[in-house]
């Protein structure tokens, strides 16, 4: 009773609680002694939280121990039953005789078949079933290898993307993307300009409205038909200009003075008349030379 507090003597409820706690600690101490055997128990703080955690741990440990004990008993019973069935089997002696009569190669083959059946979890193995199992395992292995290859490719792609993102983040954090030092000043200037323009906006709107409603406004509305008509007029003027250019080219080479140009034109006309008379004379002479020959024939 030395571990009880003085308040326990005057409060039966507190006494029962402290007795329960003392009993739990006694159980924990016994459990720790069993688990640590002859080794010293590490020092720890004794409080309500520690007691609660240790009680939960002890309960789980006992449950696990009971399950292991049940499993061990089941295995022991199964082995006993198998051993009993083998002892009572009339073919046991025959099996031992066959096993002793096997050649070393046969013994190796039998052990291989036995281990393979155990690995494949086959109770009654046969070559066909083992072949199917091996084929299924080979297919599964190939599928897993393909999946591994795809995962490796995906991992490489993700690594590349991660590298690119890291590079992009580093570039975005570089001084090139940092805000200029005079950004607050620029912001204030822009805000000042915005305020000035905002204050002038009503006045500009009034001017536009006044100009739009003015009766003296002679501004005509431009339409597609107007543009087409102007284009036709332009084409007509262009044709007229080309005709005038052709007429001007006919007087190319004449002097710029009008009188001199007239004299030059008259001289060219006289030269043209002389050439015409010369041509006519040559033509008449040619006709006279050819006429006697035709009569002689």
TrEMBL record:
Source organism (scientific name): Botrytis tulipae
Location of the protein in the cell: Cytoplasm, Cytoskeleton, Spindle
GO biological process, one term: cell division
Keywords: Cell cycle, Cell division, Coiled coil, Cytoplasm, Cytoskeleton, Microtubule, Mitosis
Family in the record: Belongs to the HAUS1 family.
Protein name: Uncharacterized protein
Record-linked InterPro entries: HAUS1 (IPR026243)
GO cellular component, one term: microtubule
Coiled-coil segments on the chain, per record: 227-285
Keyword Cell cycle found: yes
Domain of life, source organism: Eukaryota
